[in-house]
């Protein structure tokens, strides 16, 4: 099996897993804590792509064209914060900042 085909199979498996809302939330949580802003946008794009037809629905909900949405989620451009928040909200997610007690608890558990 070619390397390209193996990667495509891996991508498809990842997208199947990300169709589960709980998995998608955990994936994005890990990405926002560990990765660069560009990688987070790519990860957010993976969540959007995880369900067929979702890209069109998200584009409509955000008021962005599909091409603009693909561009924003490519990680190759700097998406505006407003755009990222529209996408997060359209996915039914929230960007939250934990209180100080939560952060201390997380650090001691690590």
UniProtKB/TrEMBL annotation:
Residues in the signal sequence:
none
Q: Name one Pfam family in it.
A: dnstrm_HI1420
A molecular function annotated in GO for this UniProt entry is: DNA binding
InterPro entries in the cross-refs: HI1420, Lambda_DNA-bd_dom_sf
Which NCBIfam families does the entry link to? dnstrm_HI1420
Instruction: Return the protein name.
Output: Uncharacterized protein
Originating organism: hydrothermal vent metagenome
Q: What is the lineage of its organism?
A: unclassified sequences, metagenomes, ecological metagenomes
